[in-house]
Design brief:
By secondary structure, this protein is mainly α. Helices cover about 30% and strands about 5% of the residues. About 20% of the residues are buried.
Length: about 110
C-alpha cells in the first residue's frame, strides 16, 4: 500500500521542526552553562585580564578602569541570569565565573 504525503503535511511538519530546533538549542545551552567548570584565578588568561572572584578586593590603583559597582553580574559578557551565583562568560569560554567577580574586560550590560 502506498501512502501519499500531502503538501500541507510537509509544510506543517517543517514549521513544527523549525520551531522545535531553536527551542531545543536554548535548553541545551542552559544545561551546558550550568555544567561549566569554574574559572581558576591562576589560569594564564585570567591572570592576564586581572580576574578575581571578589570584586571588592580589586586593587583600584593597579586597575584604573575599576569602579566599585563593577562585577561580573553587571557585565555584558556574563551569560548567567540575574541572581545566579555563577554563569558562563564570553571572555572565558568553557568556564563559569562568579557573579561577584571582576576582570579588566568588564563592560556595562545594556539596559533591558
Amino acid at each position: 500500500m502506498q501512502y501519499k504525503i500531502s503538501r500541507r503535511a510537509v509544510v506543517k511538519g517543517g514549521l513544527i521542526a523549525g520551531a522545535l530546533v531553536p527551542a531545543m538549542g536554548m535548553l541545551a545551552n542552559t544545561a551546558a552553562a550550568a555544567g561549566l567548570p569554574p574559572l581558576d584565578p591562576n589560569d594564564p588568561t585570567a591572570k592576564a585580564l586581572g580576574y578575581t572572584t571578589d570584586a571588592s578586593k580589586v586593587n583600584a590603583s593597579a586597575n584604573p578602569t575599576y569602579k566599585p559597582n563593577q562585577k561580573c553580574a553587571t557585565c555584558a559578557q556574563f551569560q548567567g541570569k540575574a541572581g545566579d551565583a555563577s554563569g558562563g562568560c564570553n571572555i572565558f569560554a568553557g568556564h563559569s565565573v562568579v557573579q561577584g567577580g571582576w576582570c579588566k574586560v568588564w563592560a556595562q550590560k545594556p539596559a533591558a
